[in-house]
Amino acid sequence: MNRPDTAPEREALADRLAAQGHLRSRAWRAAVEAVPREHFLSTGVFLPDEANGLWRPVLPGSVSPQEWVEIVYSDQSLVTQLDGCLTPDQVIEPVRGFPTSSSTVPATVVGMLEDLDVHDGQNVAEIGTGTGYSTALMCHRLGEDNVTSIEVDAEVAARADDALEKAGFSTWTVTGDGLLGNPRRAPFDRLIATCAVRRIPYTWVRQTRPGGVILATVGPGAWSYGTGLAKLTVREDGTAQGQIIGRSSFMPARAEAAVPLSGDLAARAAYADTERTTALSPAVLEQWMPAFLAQLAAPGAQFVHARSGDGRETTYLFDTHRESFAALSKGGELWTVRQGGPIAIWDAIEAAVTAWQRVGEPDVDAVRLTVTAKAHTYSIGGNPTLRWEHRID
Ligand SMILES: C[S@@+](CC[C@H](N)C(=O)[O-])C[C@H]1O[C@@H](n2cnc3c(N)ncnc32)[C@H](O)[C@@H]1O
Questions:
Q1: HSE (CB half, 13 Å, CA atoms) of 343?
Q2: How far, in Å, from the CA of 259 to the mean position of ligand 1?
């Protein structure tokens, strides 16, 4: 097949990213213009079919060369693996599945690389190689010997390594659990994660030089939204401090993916220790910042809306590790909240959300984070109700 040269598309991509404010420096612009994204998508992509919730496999050869280039340079994340094993070249018909690897939307990739604030000669670790596209951008910017990329899935890692070689980058791709970093290539000046984590592994702090930066999406509850991009600076005393610099959403680190709630939820919430009313609607959890706060206040809780046979709607929050639940249902103007188990989940969430409302509902970038070997401490301003310590024991 006659493959088009994509230099014009890369330049157009760089122009769009610059206009949107994601691409801010000459050096990253040169990388975006130089690295062909199609090199990293040779086994195709799964495109979502909104109508039926299925994923449609598209291969470089199954559409016209021009259509393929349009897909490759579209402003979207391109899913390359479902359910930890399935690639687009293995199926013909649309399939159901859960995305487990992708080429992240360039706006996010480039925005994060700019936020990483790298300088020439720095040694960078990337957690979550995926297709290898973001790795290639870093290799272009810093040189292949200064980039170590860790991917947990051996097949994904092999494909990325192959694509990187073909693109001219013999970099350090490592198959392994990125939550453990890579001691052989440490210390790093910068560490960037393109999968979400429940907490910043202390190993990352240990493997980053004092003054170095860690950039990763955190969500203590592993919700798919209500997560934030943490930018931390490692200090001489072995702690890391910084803040959440914006909203961010990534697929969770493999070992940390939440198991969906299942079974008879009403039966699991049958015996409550307390019952009261609340004016705070559980619908607040659909919003990004309250969802982030909920994860800080009740880090083990998962939530689900359910509708019973008689049409009655209930919002459940379960902390399965601590055998606790909260169940909220509408009763007139207010909500009835029933709670069971040692953790009063809704009490904790309600206290956090109402305290946050009282201080003017700041966005996620008001959240500060300190990581030590023993704990993560999140805070907003000096309000003691807006301070959460998650201990690692
Ligand atoms: C969103 S994709 C990465 C996108 C990639 N940086 C790119 O631009 O193409 C996330 C990747 O993280 C990988 N991953 C998940 N958990 C991991 C872990 N614990 N260690 C290393 N990689 C992990 C997944 O297998 C997946 O390939």
A1: 19
A2: 18
Please state the atom number of ligand 1 nearest to the C-alpha of residue 255. Answer: 19
How far is the centre of ligand 1, averaged over its atoms, from the C-alpha of 207 (Å)?
19
> 323 in the Ramachandran plot: left (φ > 0), alpha (ψ -120 to 50) or beta?
left
C-alpha 137 to ligand 1 mean position (Å): 16
Q: Which atom of ligand 1 is nearest to the CA of 135?
A: 6
d(CA 296, CA 11): 41
Give the tokens for residue 116. Answer: 């990483």
Ligand 1 is surrounded, with C-beta below 6 A, by: 100-104, 109, 127-128, 130-131, 133-134, 150-153, 156, 177-179, 194-195, 250-251, 253-255
Which domains occur in the chain, in start order? 257-357 (3.30.160)
* Residue in 108, 116, 111 with CA at minimum distance from that of residue 212: 116
Question: d(Cα 360, Cα 24) in Å, to the nearest integer?
Answer: 31
The Cα 32–Cα 28 span in angstroms is: 6
Nearest residue by C-alpha to atom 13 in ligand 1: 128
Q: Which residue, judged by its Cα, is nearest atom 17 of ligand 1? A: 253
Contacts of 208 (CB under 8 A, 6+ apart): 186, 187, 188, 189, 190, 191, 214, 234, 240
Cα 177 to middle of ligand 1, angstroms:
10
**Model-level pTM?**
0.95
Number of C-alpha atoms within 13 angstroms, CB side, residue 372? 9
The DSSP-derived string for 138-176 is HHHHH-GGGEEEEES-HHHHHHHHHHHHHTT---EEEES
Q: What is the pLDDT of residues 250-282, one digit of tens each?
A: 999 998 887 777 788 888 888 999 999 999 999
Instruction: Place 1 in a pLDDT band, splitting at 50, 70 and 90.
Output: very low
